[in-house]
Amino acid sequence: MAPRRRAFAPRISRRGGRLLLAAPFALIAAVTVVDILSPPEVHIGPFLIAAPALTASFAGPRMTAFVGAVAVLAQAVVAVARTSLTDLNHTYQIIALVLISIIVTFFAALRERDEARVTRLRSIAHAAQSVVLRPLPHRAGPLHIASVYLAAEEEAQMGGDLYAAARTASGTRLLIGDARGKGLDAISEASLVLGAFRVTAHREQELPELVGHLEEGVGSAEEAEGPAAPGSDAGETADETDEAFVTALVLDIPDHEPVVRLVNCGHPPPLLLRQGRVIPLDTTEASPPLGLSDILSPDVTVETFPFGVGDVLLLYTDGVVEARDHARAFYPLTERLTAWAGDDPPTLLDHLRADLQAYAGGHLGDDAALVAVERLAPGPPG
User: How far is CA 85 from CA 95, 290, 295, in A?
Assistant: First the structure.
């Protein structure tokens, strides 16, 4: 986790902070000199109010109060130089400057307190998100794994997309998915699926049985919402209530067999990078998304594809292929991948992430998750 910043510290470089602090003092000096040299009928001393007001926008209450005190002192110097300190016009200017400085100092203190609260909440949210979406291991048996998560919402680390890995006695199991919707509801559904996967994926069971456990995880969220309120129209409720479901890929990669077995639950197909080619692993019959087995056919189909040494498997969510450029064209994932087909997983995802963000203008319309898996040559026994 990144170290927590002090709430009143400006989010700029140290050099930029010095330039900002120099601005109000430069303003005070300029206004003071010009006011002293101006004709008797010209008064620009009221512009000194801008100095503490400007400081309150980026500094804390102490610095704001200090700048306000310097501005009041400068106004007193102007009064003495032009007439006298007891001159009625300058007296009112000094009183107004003191009052404004007190007010902006108070608001600077409020801003500092609110920023400290937001920083604490953000740290708690980041810690919770890191528990829900744990980083994938770099190595799992003969597999080299890399992952990237790109959240569409600013300052977020996780949305509705998910991925996880688990070791079994004979291989590695992987999960990537996308919960319907956004916000807390999507995160809740994603956490339920991840929890079910972590509990059951390490067991020696067939993939259809594992998918059944994941299905139960999504179903538990719907049961927790409870039945419709008494007296409500059942048809209207069905129309107004969105079904909760999660598209997912569940994969089983044996350690000593050059294949990958997968179940596709309504998710974009994985891409296999082999000898400079990009091969979509399209299943002949996709299973329904998790959470929709009571509506669609609950049949689970397991399909097997070759996955040998040197092959790289790319798993992704629809936030990748649905990213658009300024012309509203979708991101051509398969075409772009051919340029990096020979890279290892971390390098591949670095290139892909940079290219995707540049293509979308730095802002994705939806969360995007990427997992790259390479099968390495078997090492020595033990």
Answer: 12, 78, 84
Burial class from Cβ neighbours inside 10 Å (0-12, 13-18, 19+) for residue 345 reads: buried
| Whether pLDDT at 35 is above 70 | yes
Structure tokens at 124: 């708690």
| pLDDT tens string 94-144 | 999 999 999 999 999 999 999 888 888 777 666 666 666 788 999 999 999
How many degrees, rounded to 5, is the angle at CA 43 between CA 42 and CA 44?
Answer: 120
Phi-psi region of 78 (alpha: psi -120 to 50; beta: other; left: phi over 0): alpha
Pairing relation of β-strands 271-274 and 139-140? Answer: unpaired
Report yes or no: 279 and 272 within 8 Å, Cβ to Cβ.
yes
* Partners of 306 in beta bridges: 259
Name the region of 231 (left: φ>0; alpha: ψ -120 to 50; beta: rest). Answer: left
Quickly count: other Cβ atoms within 10 Å of residue 99's Cβ. 12
Q: Which two tokens stand for residue 382?
A: 């033990």
Pairing mode of beta strands 312-316, 368-375: antiparallel
Average pLDDT of 191-195? 88
pTM across the whole model: 0.67
pLDDT at site 270: 96
Query: Which amino acid, one-letter code, is at 52?
Result: P
Residue with tokens 């101006």: 38
